[in-house]
Specification:
Strand content: 15-25%
Largest sheet: 8 strands, mixed
Bound molecules: zinc ion
Radius of gyration: 22 Å
Distance between the termini: 62 Å
Number of helices: 10
Structural class: alpha+beta
Number of strands: 12
CATH class of the largest domain: Alpha Beta
CATH topology of the largest domain: ph1033 like fold
Amino acid sequence: MLLLTKRKFNYLKSTMMRNDLSERELTPFDIIWIKNITNSEYGSAYMNVDSEFVLHFPNRHCGNILKPQKGEIILLYQNINGHKVFTHLVTPVKDKIEEEGDRANFRYGRKVRVIAHTPIDDLIFVSDSLWSRVNFQGISQGNACEISHISKLGIFDDLLRDIWVRFTPFFKKDFSDSIRLVENISKEIDLNDPDFGVTEGKERLITHIARERNKEIVYKKKQQALKQGLLKCSVCEFSFIDSFGAEFIECHHVKPISESGETTTKLEDLELVCSNCHRMLHRKFEGHFLSICELKNRIIKYKLLQNKCKNEDR
Ligand SMILES: [Zn+2]
Ligand SMILES: [Zn+2]
């Protein structure tokens, strides 16, 4: 008889979730990249694709092919009959470069999964959308660019919401259950909350939060910690396992928000923290964000202060 312990069951469940993107929730803030896929020779590109296809990159940008991480969404646009149109939302399925020798200038690519795809007779025109205010000149031909680098400060989250709403009728069936409706999202990340470091720039903060929530890398980080038996807050050492019997923990990206633009997330960029400490790491103290170490010292300082007060009361 097969005995499935609770731990084993949870492990299997999370492994399944990791491999099957349709199991996890998708939000507009998962759209990190934009890529121009114009094919002037054929008039359109990737319009008759199945659920997966190889997205090609120009040879000169082949170093960037692996930059988008699994779980991050790439927004594809192209010129069709002289109109700039959005046609796909896709996400990488493998950390592997595909090579197709018969293609001269677009020899390398990345296997991607289609999340949403417009039919040729129902295109999303850039000129009709909020994106008409964006300068597309900053996007180098064929390369995947981070949207936070090209968008104007202040309208970044509106751009993502706008594209999400327009793609909503075209989400693939296997994803439709996991698509988060735009109305529910603003409640979750309240960017006007003064405790969040909005002054650093909304768009960078959203990229930062999206990175921290990338299920793929968070999963890897947690597994690494579990193996070493160290699933606890790196600031206050709180353990959700000990207190709640739950393998829960949050991830904090330690690179400052203002510098995290270009970088891809590595495991060592993430620290495991409890929800309270995480909240404090995103809050400014005397005008700046605290590092893990500084927050640790602050806790020690206030504990000492409290003890001192108690002793004086006696
Ligand atoms: Zn903590
Ligand atoms: Zn964080």
